[in-house]
Amino acid sequence: EKQLAESGGGLVQPGGSLRLACIGSGFTMKECTMNWVRQAPGKELEWVSSIYPGGTVLYRDSVKWRFAISRDDAKNTLYLQMNSLKVEDTAVYYCSCSHPENFRGQGTQVTVSS
To answer: Which of 13, 18, 24, 107 is the most exposed place for a label (fewest CB within 10 A)?
Structure first.
């Protein structure tokens, strides 16, 4: 069974940092297009960042230069380093594989508040 398990969320003040991790099991992460997506209260799910099997990375404009996605193939783990966090980054963050299959984890809550 293919599974993703996120961790690393929490409460942080504006301007702070968090590092999210997503451990994959039952599949090889480097063969997937891996993503971070998030859902803020009362809002739709939105894409945050992707890393492709070849290593290409993409970010939504609002997190560019603040967030960094990476993948540790030996650990089958995806990361999202989040710096200079803003109140508007508050959301449940999910990791997902979108190709060649489509599945995601249960999410981790990130709250940015003073």
So the answer is: 13
